[in-house]
Amino acid sequence: MIVALVVVLGVLAAYTAFVCTSVALPRRLRLALGPISLERIPDRAARRHRGRVLFTSDEPCSWSVPQPGGTGGPGPDSWTARDVQTTAGRVAAALSALGLRHGQRVAILKRNHFDIHLLHLGVVRAGGVACPMNGAFAADKVAPYLLNVNARILLADVPTLLRVLREGGAPDGVDTVVLVGRAGDTPETDVRELSAALERAGVPAVHWIEELLAAVERPAPAVRRGRREPLYLVHTSGTTGFPKAVILRNGPQARAIRGWLCYVHVSPQRDKGYFAVPNNHQAVIMTFHSLLLLGVRTHWTRATGLDFDAPRAVQELASGRYTGFFGFPITYTQLKEVPLAAHDLRAMRFWASTADAAHEEMIRPCVRVGGTFRRLGLPMGGSVYLDAQGSSEVGTPSVLRYYSRFTRRYERRIGRRHSTPFGPRVRIARDGRVVPRGEVGRLEVRGRTLFEAYWNNHSLTYEAVRDGWFFTGDVARWSGGHVVQLDREVDVIRTRVGEVYSLPIEERVHRHPAVFDACVYAARQPDGSQLPAAAVAVRSGASTTARELRDELNALLTPAEHLVAVEIVPWDEFPIGVTGKTLKRAFRERTEPTPVPEANRPVALEIADRPAPLVAASSG
C-alpha cells in the first residue's frame, strides 16, 4: 500500500514538473521575482536573447535606422532583441540632440504599427515621458490633449497628421514635429500641403526621422529612472467624454509586468503569439515589455478594430501554427463569424483579451478549438481564453478569469477576488462602505499598480479616487466568489421601477442567431424615465425585421428588461471609439429631448408632445 502511494505521488510530482516546464513557469517566476525597471528591459533582453528574431510585422516599417558606414539597420518587418535595443538607443540619441529634457513629454501620434513600441522606448531611454496616442484620435481633441500634456515634441506619420489638419485639428503647443516615415515615399503634394499647414499652425521646426537618425553617431545609453518617475502618459478610451491622460510610473508598471509573467502561461521556446491590438494602449505596452523581457516570438498585425480582417487572421493562425492570439473584444466580435472548427487550429493554446470583458458568445467558439490539453499530455481538444478586465488607471487587470471548454457558468462573472497576481485589492461599495454580498455597488480597487493621478486634472482624480480606492466606473455584485459585472455606471438604465443593467441584456441578445453585434442603452421616454433599447447589427444573410427581432429578443428577457425598441443598424455605422468600444452615449443621446431656445409652452408640455425619436421610428 505504501509503495503504491509512493508511486502515485511520484507520478503526480513528475507530471506537475512536466506541466510547469511546459509553460516555462520556473523561468517566468525567476523574472517576476527579480529586479525590473522599464528603461533597462531592452538592455536585459539584448543580453539574454541577442540576435534571435522576436517580433515580426505584416507591414514593413515606414522608416529605417541608418548605420555608420552605410550598413543597413534592422529589417523592415522583423526585429531581434538587439535590433530593438539599438533602434531605441538611436531614437533616444536623436531626441536628445533635439533638446529633449528629462521628464519632458513627447507625443506619438501615428497609425497603428509595431514601430510605436520602438518610438516610445526611445523616448523613455532618453529620459522623456512618452505620450502614445491612438492614430484615430479625434481631430478636434488633438490640440487640447497636446496642450494638456504639454508635449513640445510630436512624432507623427504624414497620413495621420494630414488627416488631423484636414479635419480642423492642430498640433497646438508643439515646437518640433518629427515625421515618422521616409521623405522619398511621400507624395510631393502631401509634403507641400503638410508643410504649409504646419507653417500656418506656427510649428517652428519640422524634421524627418531618418535625417535625424543619420546624424546619430552611436545609440544612447538608457537614462536611469527611479521607481516613482512617470515614464508614460496614456489616454483613456474617451467613452464617457474627453480622453484623460493617465500617469504610469516606473515602479507600479514594473509590478504589473511581474503579474503578467505569473498569469500569462507562455513559454519562449514553445509559444508564438499573434497580436491584433492598438499599440498605444497601456495593456499592450505592458505586454510588449513582458514579451521582450521573456523573449516570446510575436507577430504584430497593423489592422485592428474595423480594419481587422478576421478570416485572414484565422488563416494565418492556422498556417503559421500560432499558439496564442491577443485582441480586444471588437476583434472577437468579428472572429465569431469565422467557422474556427473548419481551420487547423490544433496548435492554439490560448486566446486573450482585455479592456471590456467579452461576452459568452465570443468566448465559446474559441475554447472549443486548439490543443492546450493535448500539449499537457491529456487526450482532449480545446484551448483557454484569458479575459482580463481592467483599465489604464489600474495598471494591471482588476480581475481576470480563465475560460475553457469545461466552463459552465458565464453570466458576466469576470473573476474572483485576488485573481490577478501582484494586482489590486477589490471591493464592491456604495458611499465608501462595502455592500452586503449579493447587493449592487461600485467596483473599486486599491493596490500598488494603481495610478496616482490624471495629468493636469486634479478635479477628476479626486472624483475617481476616494480614500485610496479607485472607482473603475463599473457597477457589480458578488456571486459565488465572483465579481459579476452589470454595467458601466453611466450606462445604467433608470426606469420607473428601478435600475436595469445593459450588459446582462447584451449577454442574452448575443445568443440570438441573427445577432452579429448589439448595443443596449437607455432610451429616454416622454415621461422623462428610461427604458432599455437596442441597436443591433445582424449577421450576413440573416432575414428579420426590427419588430420581429424585438419580439424574439424580449422572449429571452425578464419583463423589466424588455426592449422598448430595436433598431437594425449596419455595423460600420456603429459609433465605435478608438479602442474598439461602442459608444453607448451616442445612441442614448439620440433619445434625449432637443432643447428649445424659445418655448412659448411649458417645458413639460413640450416634452410630452415630442415623440421619442428612436422609440417611435424603430420599434416597427
TrEMBL record:
<feature type="domain" description="AMP-dependent synthetase/ligase">
    <location>
        <begin position="76"/>
        <end position="455"/>
    </location>
</feature>
<dbReference type="Pfam" id="PF00501">
    <property type="entry name" value="AMP-binding"/>
</dbReference>
<dbReference type="InterPro" id="IPR020845">
    <property type="entry name" value="AMP-binding_CS"/>
</dbReference>
<dbReference type="InterPro" id="IPR025110">
    <property type="entry name" value="AMP-bd_C"/>
</dbReference>
<feature type="region of interest" description="Disordered">
    <location>
        <begin position="59"/>
        <end position="79"/>
    </location>
</feature>
<dbReference type="InterPro" id="IPR050237">
    <property type="entry name" value="ATP-dep_AMP-bd_enzyme"/>
</dbReference>
<feature type="domain" description="AMP-binding enzyme C-terminal">
    <location>
        <begin position="505"/>
        <end position="581"/>
    </location>
</feature>
<dbReference type="InterPro" id="IPR042099">
    <property type="entry name" value="ANL_N_sf"/>
</dbReference>
<protein>
    <submittedName>
        <fullName>AMP-dependent synthetase</fullName>
    </submittedName>
</protein>
<dbReference type="Pfam" id="PF13193">
    <property type="entry name" value="AMP-binding_C"/>
</dbReference>
<dbReference type="InterPro" id="IPR000873">
    <property type="entry name" value="AMP-dep_synth/lig_dom"/>
</dbReference>
<dbReference type="InterPro" id="IPR045851">
    <property type="entry name" value="AMP-bd_C_sf"/>
</dbReference>
<dbReference type="GO" id="GO:0016878">
    <property type="term" value="F:acid-thiol ligase activity"/>
</dbReference>
